[in-house]
Write a structure and sequence with these properties.
By secondary structure, this protein is mainly alpha-helical. 59% of the residues lie in helices and 6% in strands. It has 2 domains: 64 residues, Arc Repressor Mutant, subunit A, CATH 1.10.10; 44 residues, no CATH class. It has 5 helices and 2 strands. A two-stranded antiparallel ribbon has the order 1-2. A hairpin with a 3-residue loop joins β1 and β2.
Length: 129
């Protein structure tokens, strides 16, 4: 089972979208240090992508130090040495852009958006207590 989702969107390569989704899963804590990462075959089958594309995804994540390969064990999430705050911020930029475009399309104001964000923030913070 793949521990993250990919919502394929036109205009961005499948490869980039799967890499982004995997990074987001690691940064958000869906995938933690030591967790197994899906095999190339599993990525290919689940997301219906070419095995070569799935292999490129894993290779990219290994190159970036997000994953490491252990012979006889498989590919696992590795301890991050980079600035996770910077990575989280970078991932959030895309999400913010999509949110703002949709809010403007719906005719919402900045205040509407910040109020809704504050409500969701409080709701999610409250669920952790």
């Amino acid at each position: 089972m793949i521990p993250f989702r990919v919502s394929f969107a036109p205009g961005t390569s499948l490869y980039e979208q799967v890499v982004y989704a995997a990074k987001k899963a690691v940064v958000s804590g869906q995938l933690r240090v030591g967790d197994p990462f899906p095999s190339v075959r599993e990525l290919s089958k689940t997301f219906k992508i070419n095995p070569n594309t799935a292999h490129r995804v894993v290779t990219q994540l290994v190159t970036e130090g997000i994953l490491e390969v252990h012979l006889g064990v498989g590919t696992v999430v590795t301890k991050r040495t980079g600035s996770s705050a910077a990575e989280r911020s970078k991932l959030l930029q895309k999400e913010f852009e999509q949110l703002i475009v949709e809010a403007k399309r719906l005719g919402l104001t900045f205040e509407d958006v910040t109020s809704a964000a504050a409500q969701h923030w409080k709701r999610l913070d409250g669920s952790k207590k």
